[in-house]
Specification:
The protein is an alpha/beta fold. It has a 4-stranded parallel sheet with strand order 2-1-3-4. The protein contains 8 helices and 4 strands, in the order βαβαβαβααααα. The longest helix is centred in the first third of the chain and has 15 residues. Helix 1 links the parallel strand 1 and strand 2. The chain has one domain.
């Protein structure tokens, strides 16, 4: 029996971990894997570096520093086959000050959002921004970015509520919908839920089952991109 795939995970928050885990299970099938959360870390709700994309920023900067200026040279990564770094695409609309961050000279500027659609018009420059946090001029091997547009909740809503009005809209593509999380509370009372870990865990199998649909060509572009890049990496 082959050794399990060792994947490290850096995400904005714990619910993002649950969604990525479900997607990985769908893509890997019976292949064994070990998913290790690095950020947020430990039993603290948001880890010592804080939550949200600010926590991701601080983790990347710290680990790049420990790698002599580049995340890919950090020996910590030797313990893993793959590192997934997640930020939501709406970070492209944000400022460093919003996360109480004083950017370094090497950090590419925020905001970097461009008109949507397509989602990639904002996710591409945002990926470059995250690379600058990592001290990397180009995407390194074994480091994979996950950038749902506009947030991870777009994947959740599209998976669990495919007939939602915002998902079905012909006016604004759902990956351009500014607040997908708000759609969770707009569902019928008997199926609506909040962005809480227990609620996400209870729906993890459903998320796993629906992943092939939302990540297929013609589905959500950034989900499809993550699928293709993940499968190429493993």
């Amino acid at each position: 029996m082959s050794d399990p795939l060792r994947v490290a995970l850096v995400v904005e928050g714990p619910t993002d971990h649950i969604v990525i885990d479900a997607a990985m299970r769908a893509m890997l099938g019976n292949r064994r894997f070990i998913l290790t959360p690095l950020q947020p870390e430990g039993s603290l709700a948001f880890g010592p570096l804080g939550g949200g994309w600010g926590g991701v920023y601080r983790w990347c900067v710290q680990q790049a520093r420990d790698g002599g200026g580049r995340l890919s040279l950090n020996r910590m990564l030797d313990r893993f086959d793959l590192l997934i770094v997640h930020v939501d695409a709406d970070v492209a609309d944000d400022t460093y000050a919003a996360a109480n961050i004083t950017p370094r000279p090497a950090d590419l500027p925020l905001p970097c959002a461009r008109p949507c659609p397509p989602a990639a018009e904002s996710t591409n420059p945002l990926r470059a921004v995250v690379l600058s946090w990592c001290g990397e001029p180009a995407p390194p091997e074994r480091i994979l970015f996950c950038v749902p547009s506009k947030s991870m909740e777009a994947w959740v809503v599209a998976s669990l509520f495919p007939n939602d009005a915002a998902v079905m809209s012909r006016t604004v593509p759902f990956e351009c919908y500014p607040t997908p999380e708000s759609r969770l509370g707009q569902q019928p009372k008997n199926v609506r839920f909040a962005k809480r870990q227990p609620d996400y865990r209870a729906r993890s199998l459903h998320l796993r089952t629906e992943w092939p649909r939302i990540a297929a060509p013609g589905g959500l572009e950034e989900a499809n991109r993550f699928r293709l890049e993940f499968l190429a990496a493993v």
